[in-house]
Protein: ATP-dependent 6-phosphofructokinase
Amino acid sequence: MAQIGTEVVDCPLPEQPADDTEAHEEDDTIGELPTDLSGINADITSSTANSPFNKFRGSICATEGYEKNLHVLAKNQYTDRAMGIFTSGGDAQGMNPAVRAIVRMGIYLGCKVYFIHEGYQGLVDGGNSIRQATWASVSGILDDGGTIIGSARCKDFREKPGRLRAAKNLIDHGINNIVCIGGDGSLTGANLFRKEWDSLLKELVETKEVTQENADKYKNLNIVGLVGSIDNDFCGTDMTIGADSALHRVMEAIDCITTTASSHQRCFVMEVMGRHCGYLALVTALGSDADWVFIPESPPEPGWEDQLCNKLKSTREMGQRLNIIILAEGAIDTEGRPITSDGVKELISTRLKYDTRVTILGHVQRGGCPSAFDRLLGTRMGTEAVLALMEATATSQPVVIAISGNQTVRVPLMQCVEKTLAVAQAMHAKKFKEAQELRGRSFKGNLETYIRLSKLRPKVVSNKQCSFNLAVINVGSPACGVNAAVRSIIRYGLCEGHKMYAIFDGFEGLINNQVKSLDWVAVNGWSSVGGSLLGCQKTLASKVGLAKLAEKIREHNFHALLIIGGYEAYLSILQMYEARSQYPAFQIPLICIPATIANNVPGTEFCIGADTALNEIVKICDKIKQSAQGSKRRIFVIETMGGYCGYLATMAALASGADQAYIYEEPFTIKDLIDDVDHLRKKMEGHLKRGLLLRNERANEHYSTDFITKLLQEEGKGVFSARSNVLGHMQQGGLPSPFDRAFATKLGCKAVTYAVSLIEKAATQDGKVICNTAESAVVLGLIKRQNEFTSVESLKLKTDTEHRMPLEQWWLKLRPLLRILAKHESVYISDLMEAGVEEVDQSQ
Structure:
């Protein structure tokens, strides 16, 4: 999966907060935010033109991973190989899914896989610290936080005698392939070990601790790294393992604190982790309506104390009952002096006399179950790490497995480490703008978005020559994150000096004149609310009546219509676009912001709400597995929503460790169902006596959830029992996930910017807007690493209109991985035909 705000195409870099521009001049009465933000870019460019850090800018060369070819992987290809895996440095949720994937993919390919317990310390100690892993060793660990193989700091490895012992221990076990999961320090140590490998072996041969034969046999040490860090502070990957889960912990705490803060009219200063990187702090602030954020990459200018107090005082005068301030633990001022949570509390308590409390989350952020995203990220990265090791040669350089958009890629380890260290060096030298440049292009975009959306009030006088009327509406089924999108649209439009209107209860509401102008305060706190505060209807534009809609758009003088919703929103815009010649009122910018848990809108790889729904399903699967474990020998069949689109079923199955997922896109027969029964029968002979099958609600007209459950009950008599669960509309509920909040916020801002740019080009002197091009009726979506506007006209050819989903879906390439990691013996005929392979040995 892709993560928050990844917009760079040529250089996969982590999304982090921060522009050096003053982050807290939100209020016109406090400090003016420049309307033209291009000046920020120009200032940074001029100030960094001769910077010594310039050599680290630009692309990190990335090689595409092997995921798209998983369907041609044959079993037992590498029976002569052995690999070791260890975790080092701070733990992070998602490490265990990575360990599980590495072990199982390694065993599938015929390798011996060894756990190296306690990180580098286990590598030095050897003995029982290095143990061979089995398939069952990693059963049931997907939902466990931390790392089951331990992590410890090791002084011995820093010295050559320690590395000599480590090399001997590896040779003794026949290991010359290593997967290191950790931060930049751990990966740097692994690279040093690899560079010294040849000299270490020579010394071991001379001292007769290793035979020449073994030294020749294991003369090459191959290293692959995975980055586990909740700070998301590693250059070279969009997201690090653990960052999304940490965001979940932080956002959950914010949501809880908000209720008590409002009850007592308190101010809370929440300190989150991030000693050198403000990613957690900024994304939390972006998705939680925080009044202020302190991050190390963007120190506040002198006098920030007055600005902060004035801002908080003004919010209270406007009726706000609480204030939330987010502070990264590494926050500093422009002179490098620490800004502490206690210091901020003292400032507010002394000057404003507000009841102010401090909450330091600390290691809570590292704990708990990994999110669905981190489970999938760890699984995909771990799989790719094994494949990278198997393909390594004597001349191969060590690589890090990274995520770029929706694609796993291999990037040079030391290029990433050097760039990451360069960020720290720039910050130490107080070259904050250089540090921001090194972090990546989306740095400024994130902070600029936060600045605009956290302003106390919009500008009274806009630099824009004209003010336009922009309307937002929600069409389709409920999806978490919709309210965050509405909030960003309203506030961003107001910042630009436009009039913003909300249409309640879909197209029917527009016909009934349920239209209201919203101000800045009206959408305060909307980001954290699930469902749709505007109200949503699945009624299409054509069903309500295109003539009636055109008349209402003309009556309200809307210059642009922003439609948040699922397939119904896309189809309605297509209907209005095709009726433009008949109804000129539709000749305005029509923009679809995709929001549906089904994730089936063409023109985007992700829809708002899908991540929240996926997390809800995975949580339920975890609980059901506990029930199955307690009952012993029980199989559960779980039905998910999604229409004909199998995204939720497939991804939830991967994230929960299910045995199979039945979807419409991959036809299955009664023979396949019988094969699954045989697979489950064999599974019951092992130690983990439970099973989990997921089925998309429209996977097959005849093989319903009830049919599959009864089939299992009949065929599994005496071996296992079967139960079914239809999850239903609980998948549409809950609080928006951090990803959905931030994703919705950024899409909303981009939609407004795009709509206004089209209006300015098409506006006539008499105030009318005539947009009649294909580019003015679009879907705004995330494609690979870019937010792109795609015309609905061009999407017609890429859409399965009968089944309401795109013809090509990126996640289908992960289907073979589901069966491999579940130790499934069957390979679907469609896989073999696509691969052009006559026979693939899948026997266990």
In short: The CA atoms of residues 332 and 339 lie 5 Å apart.
